[in-house]
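ASSEMBLY PREDICTION REQUEST
Request ID: AP-0331
Submitted by: J.K., bench scientist
Number of chains: two
Total residues: 228
Priority: normal
Notes: Please return the full assembly, not individual chains.
Input sequences:
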Amino acid sequence: AQTVTQSQPEMSVQEAETVTLSCTYDTSESDYYLFWYKQPPSRQMILVIRQEAYKQQNATENRFSVNFQKAAKSFSLKISDSQLGDAAMYFCAYRSGDDKIIFGKGTRLHILP
Amino acid sequence: EPEVTQTPSHQVTQMGQEVILRCVPISNHLYFYWYRQILGQKVEFLVSFYNNEISEKSEIFDDQFSVERPDGSNFTLKIRSTKLEDSAMYFCASSEPGALNSPLHFGNGTRLTVT
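STATUS: Completed
Returned structure:
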């Protein structure tokens, strides 16, 4: 069965600094997709970034980028120039042929002013 | 931008009662999902729904739960005989047909409190 592991329950970063959130996953599939979702205090689930497993190039969305290491089954999220509004719970997620998404347990990110 | 809408935002019910959580997915989406998140814990998959039937369900989704798409727009989750441990945030989500990289679009959630 596929699993998603986020080993950092909480992290803190100074405003304007860069932070990296870790995620590893386990799968025997070769074709899949990876996502990072953000859950702010409002409890919404907001898509931050997605990565196709067949693409070697790391996805980027403005200040958000990923370091996708397929062989290592690692999918970390880098947030550059951290802003107060980035404070949230971040969930790493995996999706393959069966269409559900599996989430990690989340990392709570604190932004220090 | 189209949104998934969920009602109510907060539902309080007594143990043993039945509740129906309602969702209106994005109109051109064909895959629908329910997830739940017990306070402070991970987001857990409950069920996926496609072509008017359940395509997959988790161990959590037992006979106490059912889903329905009663018309062309609503997607409901019914919880029968609620228990204290059913208290959680319930998220509805939908996604476009086809590609795996179609992300799930989540509603804002319904907070269910069972007393």
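REVIEWER COMMENTS: Chain A has a mean pLDDT of 92.
SIGN-OFF: pending second reviewer
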